[in-house]
Amino acid sequence: MKQLNYKLVLFCAFILTINYAYSFNRSVTILVKGKVVDEFTGQPVETTVEFKTSKGKKFRIKTNSLDGTFEQVFSAGDNVEMKLYHWNVARKYYHLNIKDTIAYTEQYEKFTVKKLAVGNTLFRFNIFKSGSSEFVYGCKQMLDSIEHLLRFARNIKVVFNINIRDSYARIKKVVQPEPVKKKKRKRRKKKKPVKPQPQIVIEEPDTQVVATLADSRMGKLNSIIQTWKRFRKKISIKTDTGLLFVNEGNPLDTGYDMEVIVTEVKSTMR
After folding, report:
1. To pair with 150 at 20 to 30 A between CA atoms, which of 63, 91, 113, 245?
2. 174-192 pLDDT, tens per residue?
3. 101 and 130, same structural domain?
4. Of the residues 113, 136, 161, which one is the last residue of a structural domain?
5. In the chain, how many domains are there?
6. Distances 241 to 15, 126, 162, 218 between C-alpha atoms, Å
7. How many CB atoms lie within 10 A of CB 15?
8. For position 76, what pLDDT does the model report?
9. How far from 260 is each of 2, 111, 238, CA to CA, in Å?
10. Contacts by 62-65 with C-beta closer than 8 Å and gap 24+?
11. Does residue 175 contact residue 199 with C-beta atoms inside 8 Å?
């Protein structure tokens, strides 16, 4: 009986120790030092950050307008839901796990958002099969992400730029001249022979074929956008039939057949 009581006491002491350690750990604070930058440019962004802790507590702060940084204290081991937004920033959500430690520490985090500024690229996708106007597998998820952004960013207009550079390109070839046959001539003063120079020949696909594919892709994408009744008036579609040289490394060649670019932003600040 005494042995049973002894084991029971040990068990209770163990439970109390765990509870004490857990309660102590909950009182430890972690300082989160965050920075918000633009997804494509890497430049700091001023934005509103809304937090929701695991206990349901909600509050919001603003990042520094110059360097995009913020600091906020949380309990160790907490799980925090974050929402980042501003009148010129596309809404974005994050789940933040706070470090679970027994002593104060600092936690550094970096967050990316899409800044809504004229000329900024919001999305770059490959939505078409090469040489075709058929959508690739997973295209619906890509287009859904665009629709979701536009649902909340009601103060912008965008253009969908479609190109066909995934299917056609210009080819530059160097053609070597045919060797000149030597002819017997009377002896004269020797002159340096003029060496034939190689010629550069540029091959391009048929312009009608290129235009047909571009128009077909535009029509296919437009049939989807027309179903977005709430904000289809904010969208325009353009085709780019310009071609690049193969392996030219032109910076305009993004490697994607569609880009979504901001064309207008209306300030909602009062």
Report:
1. 63
2. 666 666 666 666 566 666 6
3. no
4. 113
5. 2
6. 71, 16, 9, 12
7. 10
8. 93
9. 77, 21, 10
10. 63/34, 63/35, 63/36
11. yes
Cα separation, 92 vs 47, in Å, equals: 11
Check whether residue 125 and residue 89 sit in a common domain.
no
C-alpha span between 72 and 70 (Å, rounded): 7
> What CATH code is carried by the domain that includes residue 133?
3.30.1330.60
Q: What is the pLDDT of residue 24?
A: 45
Does the residue 18 lie in any domain? no
Below-50 pLDDT ranges, the chain: 4, 14, 16, 18, 20-25, 251
Residues 57-99: tens digit of each pLDDT: 999 999 999 999 999 999 999 999 999 999 999 999 999 999 9
Residues 68 and 197: their CA atoms lie apart, in Å, by 58
| Domain final position from 71, 95, 113 | 113
